[in-house]
């Protein structure tokens, strides 16, 4: 089929203006798209329900000797503020503890955990692992490793 048989095809085939306008339209669409995306991301990051705060445990003392004892463990958020209602769990690491010790933090963020620690034969030191279970329905999580309690033989 030749160009002469279709009406208007000759004019369209010879028109070079469409090529000039296409890149400008793509640039405008890209700029508008990026601006819209940045506004949407700012809206999503501003929603408080999506943000969480990491919990950490701060034992006092953090170095103990084998035997029966009580240790105060403070649950703190990322800003260092005490957290009420968190459950502190202490379990054996390289040192032994009789079972799993748990306690819940009070209004001051402190939980007192009663432990019966022990070291293996020919073992001079070991650690106990602490984990923090956030209060139910809170914006807290405990994903990172917490401070360990060091058990040292005298």
UniProtKB/TrEMBL annotation:
GO terms for molecular function: carboxypeptidase activity. Residues 50-114 form the DUF7382 domain. It comes from the Archaea. Keywords: Carboxypeptidase, Hydrolase, Membrane, Protease, Transmembrane, Transmembrane helix. Coiled coil: none annotated. The chain crosses the membrane at residues 22-41. This is Carboxypeptidase regulatory-like domain-containing protein.
